[in-house]
Amino acid sequence: MPTLRIDGLDVTVEPGTTVLEAANFLGLEIPTLCHMDGLSPYGGCRLCLVEIGTGDKARLVSSCTYPAEGGLVARTNSKRVIRTRKMMVELLLSVCPSSKTIQDMACRLGVSRTRFKARNDDCILCGLCVRMCSEQMMAGAIDFTFRGNKRKIMTPFDKKSAVCRTCGGCMYVCPVCMLRCQGPNPPTVVCGSCYNLEPTCTEHFDDYMCYLGTTGSCGTCVREKRPESKKEEATR
Known about the structure:
- There is one protein chain.
- The protein is an alpha+beta fold.
- The chain folds into four domains: 3-77, Ubiquitin-like (UB roll) (Roll); 89-120 and 179-195, no CATH class; 128-173, Alpha-Beta Plaits; 196-236, no CATH class.
- The chain is 22% helix and 11% strand.
- The protein has helices spanning 19-25, 79-95, 100-108, 128-136, 169-173, 230-234, and strands at 3-6, 9-12, 49-52, 59-62, 73-75, 143-145, 152-154.
- The strands form two sheets. It has a five-stranded mixed β-sheet, sandwiched between helices. The protein has a two-stranded antiparallel sheet with strand order 6-7.
- β3 (49-52) and β4 form a beta hairpin.
- α2 runs antiparallel to α3.
């Protein structure tokens, strides 16, 4: 059985194990978006990148698709890995800023802005719905079509599929279907309202309603007002 080292820890795994699975066995958390247990690995979101090798030969690979080879040395949180993950989250935010899943992931990685123009698409091409429909529901009602920047997911010939059982599995796994608290038309690309995970509702509301009300009712969106400068006060 192959033995590899991840973040300085040696682990022996079964043949066919991926680096992501080996890291999870050690309790090391690696962010993922297009990966889900029970579905085939895809490696599309690139958030699970890890750095393997040493020196000039070190390179980034997707841990969900890279096999855990004997003698492999991997780092899950090197400076290079963290920098690349943050850039990938910025790209995902620019594609679909309305996704609560992506917004929460940005908060965990400390991403508070994006350098890319928002497109407000309704799909990030993670392929979860395609694999769920084909591998778990055994239907294959949807799939990828076209190539390049025209690539999208749809039914054959963009018509109602006769094999679709309307099970809802595609919506269940979709990271875009769960909208952020501000709804489908958010005021900013990066929300950041949940960046402070400590409950602030109790300071403003007697009843703690986390994610149960409209914008601001849960309290996490409350921000202290910026103190006015002397120059601003003088213009009043």
